[in-house]
């Protein structure tokens, strides 16, 4: 499935949009599931770029497990240095781009 990237004014707007699409599990609370499984697919990517502070930048992932469970993972710009789950999702995004 093609990954779709959207741009919204706020992270909360992206989360609201994903919730309307059925992405209700908060995978930030269950990072180990992402880290320890190759059974996730990124369906949507939402980028939020702070207008005045680069530290406000974030990426919201809409992911689906192999069992069909839909959820979200929010990664701040610094998360890629501190979160194994964020790094794995970033790697999945990069791999997906190179396959197209």
TrEMBL record:
Source organism superkingdom: Bacteria
Name this polypeptide is given: Phosphoribosylpyrophosphate synthetase
Natural source organism: Flavobacterium rhizosphaerae
């Amino acid at each position: 499935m093609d990954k779709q990237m959207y741009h919204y004014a706020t992270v909360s707007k992206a989360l609201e949009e994903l919730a309307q699409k059925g992405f209700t599990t908060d995978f930030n609370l269950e990072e180990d599931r992402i880290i320890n499984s190759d059974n996730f697919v990124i369906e949507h990517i939402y980028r939020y770029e702070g207008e005045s502070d680069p530290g406000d930048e974030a990426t919201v992932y809409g992911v689906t497990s192999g069992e069909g469970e839909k959820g979200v993972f929010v990664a701040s710009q610094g998360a890629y240095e501190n979160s194994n789950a964020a790094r794995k999702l970033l790697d999945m995004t990069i791999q997906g781009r190179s396959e197209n």
